[in-house]
Amino acid sequence: MIPAIRGTHDILPGEIERWQQAEQVVRDICGRYGYREIRTPVIEREELFAKGTGETTDIVQKEMYAFQDKGGERVTLRPEATPSMVRAFVEHALEQHLPTVKIFSLGPMFRYERPQKGRYRQFHQLDVEVFGVSDAALDAEVIEMAAALVEALGIEDAEVVVNSVGCAECRPAFGRALVTALGDREADLCGDCRRRAAVNPLRIFDCKVPSCQPIVDALPHATDYLCDACRSHFDATTGLLEALGVAFRVSHRLVRGLDYYTRTTFEILGGRLGAQNALLGGGRYDGLVRRLGGPDRAGIGFAAGMERLVLAMPDGSGPRAPDAFIVALGDAARQPAHLLARDLRRAALTALIDYGDRSMKAQLRRANRTSARHVLILGDDELAQGHVTVKDMTSGGETRVGRDDVVRNLAGDLLPASPEQPARMRRPIGRDDGD
RNA sequence: GUGAGUGUAGCUCAAUUGGUAGAGCGCCGGACUGUGGCUCCGGAGGUCGCGGGUUCAAUCCCCGUCACUCACCCCA
Predict the structure, then answer these.
(1) Which tens digit of pLDDT belongs to each residue from A281-301?
(2) CA A24 – CA A126 distance, rounded (Å)
(3) Is the ipTM of this structure higher than 0.95?
(4) What is the domain extent for residue A397?
(5) A3, A15, A130, A284: which one has the fewest Cβ atoms less than 10 Å from its Cβ?
(6) Mean pLDDT across A229-251
(7) C1' of B57 to CA of A69 (Å)
(8) Do A279 and A370 fall into the same domain?
(9) Residue A211 lies in a domain
(10) A255-269 pLDDT, tens per residue?
(11) How far is the CA of A1 from the C1' of B16 (A)?
(12) In strand B, which positions have an atom below 7 A from any protein CB?
């Protein structure tokens, strides 16, 4: 056997239903807020992420699947979507084509990390981005949408966390204030934190080491160092969030790992996810489009981990129960049975049939396992009489129906009695709703 | 990249203080020559992760290696 490579995994029947449901909810919610779907390549020039994600980030320094292709080009499997989204925005001048550039994308990302719960080398993200809008109202709307998405997925124990990391004007001053406040206590920090203090002081807030906590708690807060513009932007964002009824917590410890964030940052945390408890995270990145060679446009967005969303979703239901399972007895019945199956399917019913010459018991056992509502029996008697025996698998009762009436009868049985009760088969996603 | 734990049937797991392995579930068949779900009976299915070492003999002990899981780093 040649196994799947580390950190990748197959999504099998039984689990795929949850993914399909998650994707359906994602598309529905994004659509309601005016987002259009786009798909970008999973492979890009390495340079795009070096500049976009940031040369100093761990993602770029040690986690990229980067290589040289046969033409000598430095390319990489995308570790995140935002730089690709920015590239597409710039390359196609999307602001000329869309009233407001609100776009989302769904697809695989690749990072060379040690896998653990909720983290894989190939994983999937929903990526949502808006370009060209700096109004704080959008910050609030984006966060509200993210919360709505999580709620729509049925994830209950989620927490919205918001912060502001300032802009190019005020953020450096805060960084210096951190170092100053640290003073000689820097020596008491853990090794990771001492490294952070030198490279990116903001990240000290992320530390989980107990001995660092008293020191971290005494540090100044980013929101105390915001310039006037950033201050009012943050106040407007949180004010609108409250007005929108979004339950959130402001955390000065929320500093995100990517370099490009400005002003608003946010995350939604989920319970029961293990150590990797961020369901989604994002923020504003007002300088990124220009840094990647585009016009000076604001940007804001978030990425949600699909594996984590699916993990946090409540248990769904299984595959849809077939409307009919056809049991054929004897060679003479096989061809008519397949014709019947075809006719049922043409009538939009789900029809299954067994293969090979198996006993009636075996076929019924299989029918039972599929949770089929009806079994249609075709044997010598039925062929001779021109009818089909319809067995109701719930009650066990049987009726005879003329061969030419079977499809209509079955379809009629399953069609809605009233508009409030849409038939199962009309649903875009096959789910057994267990009635 | 670091640390810990775990690798035995399709799945969940036993067992053997070293003598080449069992259960439950699932699957297939029978009891019931054309009637599922319950019950009973039977059957198929295992390089004991892989490689090496010790030994008369290794699934068990030793070394190595790989994989998985969880955690760190970091992030979705």
Answers:
(1) 999 999 999 999 999 999 999
(2) 12
(3) no
(4) 324-426
(5) A3
(6) 96
(7) 54
(8) no
(9) no
(10) 876 778 999 999 999
(11) 29
(12) 1-3, 27-30, 32-37, 47, 67-76
